[in-house]
Amino acid sequence: MAASRTLTTIEPAMSSIPASTAQLDHSTTGPLVVTDLDGSLWDGDLRCHPETLAAVAELEARGVELLVATGRQALSAEQGLRGNGLVLPSVLLNGALGVDFASGDRFHVAEFGANRARELLALFESHGVNPVLYLGDGDTAGRPNVTTSPRHRASMGEHFEVADPEAVVADRPILSLAMIGVDRRQVEPLADAMPDGWAEVTVYRDVLYDAATPDQHWSIHVQPAGISKQTGIEAYLQTRDLRPERVIVIGDGNNDLEMLAAADVALGVAGGHEEALALADEVIPAPAEGGWARVLDHLPAGL
Questions:
Q1: 140-142, strands of its sheet edge to edge
Q2: How far, in Å, CA of 86 to CA of 113, rounded?
Q3: Could you read off the pLDDT tens digit of each residue along the chain, which spans 303 residues?
Q4: Within 13 A of 274's CA, how many CA atoms are on the CB side?
Q5: Contact 236, 48 (CB under 8 A)
Q6: 16: Cβ–Cβ under 8 A, 6 or more apart, which residues?
Q7: What phi and psi values does residue 77 have, to the nearest 5 degrees?
Q8: Which distant-in-sequence residues (6+ apart) come within 8 Å of 22 by Cβ?
Q9: What is the DSSP pairing of strand 65-69 with strand 32-35?
Q10: What is the dihedral of CA 283, 80, 89, 223, to 10 degrees?
Q11: DSSP assignment of 261-290, as one string?
Q12: How far apart are CA 93 and CA 240, in angstroms?
């Protein structure tokens, strides 16, 4: 679950985002289900409950579109999904990237302008930390002493490139900067120092990276200004030429607020962030209890 700061755009992201779907003249299609992953679809061990997997299969049998929207990068999202026998189109990095894992096609990319990426890198380093850079080719990069948890560093494996960040931001597209599972004292001052309009910033206590004390497993994600999971959803709808009759969204964190607010049916998750729960039409049980299967109760009658 996440606590988010939404900032006003000064430097627009270089983006493939379409115009609002409200302005598109598409034929109405069946419902769309959009789900967050961590704390929504699966539990802290990345396991989907059998009732959840049965519900996913039922959606497929009924011809219902299912889209993932997560803060995860492509590698970790795809591995987690495939580990549960799932291959789904996904909005990644809190809206900065969209990938259809079945085909490998990208339906959406939003990157920082080069100047903004350099400014953000300088801001991180001025606070004595070295972020992970999420690159347009799906890989990551950073200094040898990158500021992120050992578990996160290990999870990137060969997809992490040890490199001079200044050279990377000068030559390659940057979709996001992040530090995962680190000390709260490394995260909050940086977020507070972020100038208005530079980026979208999400700070949260990361239950996936438990540590000895609660202050030692916090994470920060920074993506281009104006980018959210909802903008990624809109890109997906345009590329698939969809105008769903009903959008059902499942989410538990503050990085889910935009898509929960835009949904026809918003399902919060027990234990989720209070702002997400406040937007929910129903609060479903936690992933370990198979609460996700409640999505079937909200499909249009007769489907």
A1: 3-5, 199-205, 218-224, 174-182, 132-135, 140-142, 160-162
A2: 34
A3: 444 433 322 233 455 544 333 333 445 689 999 999 999 999 989 999 999 999 999 999 999 999 999 999 999 999 999 999 999 999 999 999 999 999 999 999 999 999 999 999 999 999 999 999 999 988 999 999 999 999 899 989 999 999 999 999 999 999 999 999 999 999 999 999 999 999 999 988 786 766 656 667 889 999 999 999 999 999 999 999 999 999 999 999 989 999 999 999 999 999 999 999 999 999 999 999 999 999 999 999 877
A4: 0
A5: no
A6: 108, 109, 110, 235
A7: -65, -45
A8: none
A9: parallel
A10: 80
A11: HH-SEEEEETT--HHHHHT-SEEEPPGGGT
A12: 20
- β-bridge partners, 97: 92, 109
How far is it between the farthest Cα atoms of the chain?
Answer: 58
Instruction: Name the phi and psi angles at 112, rounded to 5.
Output: -70, 145
b vs e for 107-118, b when ≥16 Cβ sit within 10 Å of the residue's Cβ?
Answer: bbbbbbeeebbb
Torsion of CA 139, 206, 185, 12, to 10 degrees: 50
pTM score, whole prediction:
0.88
The closest of 35, 65, 44 to 206, measured between CA atoms, is 44
Q: How many whole angstroms separate alpha carbon 236 and alpha carbon 33?
A: 12
Q: What does the block give as tokens for 113?
A: 């302008």
Token pair listed for 53: 């997997």
Q: Is 46 exposed, middle or buried (0-12, 13-18, 19+ CB in 10 A)?
A: middle
